[in-house]
């Protein structure tokens, strides 16, 4: 590891969220920090990118220690792309995303802007980690997980990451002293069961709010959901080769 | 297979796009069709969902043969969710998405609204296929691939789909007589190299357009890119368990 690695920090809750401010604090202890993060909340944006409209990039000074902090009008994935091309003009040593206010465990990884930013970095050959705390509150206590964030990032820098793999790290909503340790897990097979909330606007027109219940159908003790429910930090290695290799053989028997 | 399967049709180019109109034409020959598709273009929205604003759902009559055709103000994934909860009030026999105006091969699957709609259906236990034609033109000729769309959908209905797997089908921009057949493939390892286009608005403020070059670094002859370049229809089985199982053992050696 270089003495002072270059660290790109982003998130999906927006550049002023307490979660990213804590992540920046920790990363400043490890290396040189560049922040490019959304100028507004971008939760549940998945891997969306901005192709049909323009992007604004604003140099901001939220942390007086940092020379390179930018807010971007786009999605988390846009932030990673524009950071590489316009700000860093190359690749950082690592990209960390978060700390998300709320869980990105199980299938939530697919909807998550935080994790999609990490995946985008990975697709560009940059080691990447998404961090999420299972607490949706704006005032969540990120101090309790501070040392874990640091040690996981240091290990990633020292050990390096396998090609095509990024990390999805989730923290239980517990005090530091209550956290039992870290478990390497698989993604739990859980789903959201939607229940749209139908309302009528002042002009008499119906509209809907997306709402739903998270249902975990997976009893495995090797899942992220199990780890979090039992007081552990979960780390899931995530890949972006989505090929279901095990299905190829059967599909070759289809007759078109 | 039931005599008349219930087929949910959606896309990301919007409900009036020629690609979805052709898909609806083909599906009407196979079963009973429900359309819930975006009321505006939603390309490159990935797996984004609408959580911080409201959704509108409008009953429309574009095809006089259809009783249940709705335009939705949300993303492709929103369309699938609201179709299940509010329109079908249950699960269709299959969900087909597209036909996309433009390729969703290789890593494009991750950005694609078309494929994310199919993945969302899969996550809800619904067999699902995303169809894309490697031609971005609004006036692309979808007639040439009509028979392939039908035969692939019929096979999926007859054979059923493996749990956790949806299909990413891409068609080369060729006349029917030039298409050599269908190949079951893996996702090519290709990336977009970004080059943002910097401009100045009339008020003197800088802004950017996302732009880039698609680079295929994958020489494999078993990839979707290879198949398409050689005149074949590519089918990649896609999974939404993103766990990189092969990386778990190495991560267990990390010392936190």
From TrEMBL, chains A, B:
Gene3D superfamilies: Survival protein SurE-like phosphatase/nucleotidase (3.40.1210.10). It comes from the Bacteria. It is found in: Cytoplasm. It is an enzyme of class 3 (hydrolase). Residues 7-193 form the Survival protein SurE-like phosphatase/nucleotidase domain. Its main location: cytoplasm. GO terms for molecular function: 5'-nucleotidase activity; metal ion binding; nucleotide binding. The keyword Hydrolase applies. Its cofactor is a divalent metal cation; Mg(2+). Its EC number is 3.1.3.5. Keywords: Cytoplasm, Hydrolase, Metal-binding, Nucleotide-binding. Nucleotidase that shows phosphatase activity on nucleoside 5'-monophosphates. Belongs to the SurE nucleotidase family. This is 5'-nucleotidase SurE. The gene is surE.
């Amino acid at each position: 590891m270089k003495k002072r690695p270059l660290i790109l920090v982003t998130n999906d809750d927006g550049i002023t969220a307490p979660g990213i401010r804590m992540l920046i604090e920790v990363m400043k202890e490890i290396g040189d920090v560049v922040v490019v993060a959304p100028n507004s909340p971008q939760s549940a944006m998945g891997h969306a990118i901005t192709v049909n409209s323009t992007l604004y990039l604003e140099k901001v000074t939220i942390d007086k220690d940092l020379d390179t902090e930018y807010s971007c009008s786009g999605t988390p994935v846009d932030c990673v792309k524009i950071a590489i091309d316009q700000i860093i003009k190359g690749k950082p040593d690592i990209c960390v995303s978060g700390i998300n206010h709320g869980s990105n465990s199980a299938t939530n990884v697919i909807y998550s802007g935080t994790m999609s930013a990490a995946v985008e970095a990975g697709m560009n050959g940059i080691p990447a980690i998404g961090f999420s705390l299972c607490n949706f509150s704006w005032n969540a206590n990120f101090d309790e997980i501070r040392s874990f964030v640091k040690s996981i990032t240091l290990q990633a820098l020292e050990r390096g990451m396998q090609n095509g793999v990024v990390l999805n790290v989730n923290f239980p909503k517990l005090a530091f002293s209550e956290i039992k340790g870290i478990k390497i897990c698989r993604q739990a097979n859980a789903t959201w069961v939607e229940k749209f909330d139908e309302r009528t606007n002042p002009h008499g027109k119906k509209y809907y709010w997306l709402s739903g219940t998270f249902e975990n159908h997976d009893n495995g003790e090797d899942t992220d959901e199990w780890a979090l429910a039992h007081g552990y930090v979960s780390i899931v290695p995530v890949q972006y080769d989505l090929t279901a290799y095990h299905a190829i053989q059967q599909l070759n028997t289809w007759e078109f």
